[in-house]
Amino acid sequence: MMIAKLLVANRGEIAVRIIRAAQDLGIATVAVHSEADRDSLHVQLADEAVNIGPPAAKKSYLSVPAILKAASDTGADAVHPGYGFLAENADFADAVVAAGLTWVGPSGDAIRLMGDKVSARIAADKAGVPVVPGSMGRVASIDEARGILKETGFPVMIKAAAGGGGRGIRIANDLAEFETAFPQAAAEALAAFGDGGLYMEKVIGQARHIEVQVLGDGTRAIHCFERECSLQRRRQKVWEEAPSMALSPELRTGLCASAVRLAEAVNYSGAGTIEYLYDDAADRFYFIEMNTRIQVEHPVTEMITGIDLVAAMLRIAGGEKLWIDQDEVQIRGHAIEVRLNAEDPAKGFAPFPGTITDLRLPGGPGVRFDSMLYAGYTVPPFYDSLLAKLIIHADTREAAITRLTRALSETKIEGCKTTKPLFLALAADQSVRSGAFHTRWLEGWLDANSDRLSPDA
Ligand code: ADP
Ligand code: ADP
Ligand code: MG
What we know:
By secondary structure, this protein is α+β, with helices and mostly antiparallel strands.
């Protein structure tokens, strides 16, 4: 059942990443692209490319019929969805399988169970994994919410069951705010995700975001340790690292074991991430969600464990049983990833599409650059602003931060504003260097340090 020809149903750096993994395994590749992405790197690197429609993602990267037709026209026998777009769409997973193709990811049913944030919470609770205090199901009305508010208190989070990418979350500080926010959140969730379902969680103040990478073969699961993703802007990760500097060895063991328990409880197959909030003051962790796909920040785990997670996804989808024992997965050194987005940090991170007039890539020991960039490439305005991920590996966290600064200084991306100045400033910051931050820390830092974010600062 080994995959012979893989269609990559995505674009940008992750499409490039998946094409590389496939080629390393001797698998032929098919890129799909919108009319705006004709000249993109994933199209150039794949063995074949198919135009699947106009620039608007709804008409191309989100068009199930167009993607299935591209697979059938090219004779592809498998589909990798990447992240975003259709990656957590259970109906797409089912449609791929119904078309006689191999789906590189967990089954449609596993996505339905764990991709819905409400049913995932219930599954986590059942598997004995602590969840954030809140509703154990969807909350249909303000009346129903009142009972739950007695347990959570304020501030409380209203979250969309179908939310993702930092979207679909609101905080209410008192009952009046809650009563205004609740119907607004429902309407927004319906418009954004096609599902107005909401649930509630107590706000864990001063928490860290720590997530565990898992790999499963449907029967057995292993973890590949954790990633620390507390440096966030608008609930979106900007800088991720592995391992977390906040975990004691005992806590790491408990956290990772809980992730394996949950993955095995749902017969998880493929790569997945179980996300937690860790309250250092109370020394407690809480499940928040599972991402049933490859994540943006997967390379930091690859750097510290030496496991190629995308290749592992392809092998598992091809029918192999897990070939790695838990005790073979070891942490070596420390890795940091920063997300270089086409955004102007000096102007409130406004999107900044443009043409790359000059490009100088970083290199040397411990430096990895996962990107869709080449000199002359024009960044289209229609999609995610992620251009490149700079991933650093070194023996220690301190050495990784020094190397990050060196590699950022080598990196030259002309023609487009990027988030590089943010990372140079963060790498020099005392709190970042000592690891003393939580998920709200960066927003406060940005308010206080906006003057340090111009490219000439
Ligand atoms: P990760 O969880 O992999 O670190 P993100 O949470 O930023 O990364 O999500 C990865 C990508 O998927 C981003 O481009 C994000 O916008 C997109 N995404 C994730 N979930 C959804 C969703 N439910 N709806 C729309 N976009 C989503
Ligand atoms: P998404 O699906 O958009 O990734 P998550 O549920 O993973 O949404 O939450 C995104 C981020 O929002 C978390 O990384 C964290 O910073 C913050 N967050 C989520 N839930 C809570 C909570 N209950 N208390 C405090 N912060 C939270
Ligand atoms: Mg999340």
